[in-house]
């Protein structure tokens, strides 16, 4: 049985491809440019993207999808490495699948509900 959050996450089909411009300066975060190769965009955009296992390097061509907000400016998560730059993708930490991210999100929400319930009981006493 899936929650509403999981169902909504599976419906998202919007996917962006681009190049990792900066990686390793912020924990679990990289900067993504949606202007792959020689194609010219009128207004190229930079995105802060969540990388849970810090598996990306500068120069990688990656695919990103919208995800849950993980900080003030991070709203996307890495889906897969299309073309690794430098070390092969097999030698890096794995990128979590959609099901793994949904399971982690639901576990975090359940823990939060439990903490709030405990805090509410303590206030009543």
Task: Describe the fold and architecture.
The chain has helices at residues 4-11, 98-124, and strands at residues 16-26, 29-33, 46-50, 61-66, 76-83. It has 125 residues and is α+β, with helices and mostly antiparallel strands. It has a single domain, classed as Nucleic acid-binding proteins (OB fold (Dihydrolipoamide Acetyltransferase, E2P), Beta Barrel). The model has no long low-confidence stretch (mean pLDDT 82).
Counting DSSP E segments of at least 2 residues, the number of strands comes to: 5
CATH topology: OB fold (Dihydrolipoamide Acetyltransferase, E2P)
Radius of gyration: 17 Å
Mean pLDDT: 82
What percent of residues are in strands? Answer: 25-35%
> Could you give the distance between the termini?
36 Å
Q: From N to C, what is the helix and strand string?
A: HEEEEEH
Second CATH tier, the architecture: Beta Barrel
CATH superfamily: Nucleic acid-binding proteins
Output the CATH class name.
Answer: Mainly Beta
InterPro entries: NA-bd_OB-fold (IPR012340), Ribosomal_uS17 (IPR000266)
Organism: Trichoderma gamsii
GO molecular function: structural constituent of ribosome
Protein name: Ribosomal protein S17
What is the strand and helix layout of this fold?
Elements: H1 4-11, E1 16-26, E2 29-33, E3 46-50, E4 61-66, E5 76-83, H2 98-124
Parallel strand pairs: 3-5
Antiparallel strand pairs: 1-2, 1-4, 2-3, 4-5
Summary keywords:
125 residues; 5 strands; five-stranded mixed barrel; elongated; alpha+beta; OB fold (Dihydrolipoamide Acetyltransferase, E2P); 2 helices; Ribosomal_uS17; single chain; ribosomal protein
């Amino acid at each position: 049985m899936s929650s509403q959050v999981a169902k909504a996450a599976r419906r998202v089909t919007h996917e962006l491809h681009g190049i990792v411009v900066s990686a390793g300066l912020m924990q679990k975060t990289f900067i993504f440019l949606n202007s792959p190769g020689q194609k010219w965009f009128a207004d190229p955009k930079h995105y802060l993207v969540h990388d849970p296992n810090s598996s990306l390097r500068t120069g990688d061509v990656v695919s990103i999808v919208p995800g849950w907000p993980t900080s003030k400016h991070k709203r996307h998560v890495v889906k897969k490495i299309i073309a690794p730059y430098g070390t092969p993708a097999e030698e890096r930490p794995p990128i979590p699948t959609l099901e793994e991210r949904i399971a982690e999100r639901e576990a975090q929400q359940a823990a939060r509900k439990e903490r709030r319930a405990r805090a509410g009981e303590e206030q009543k006493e």
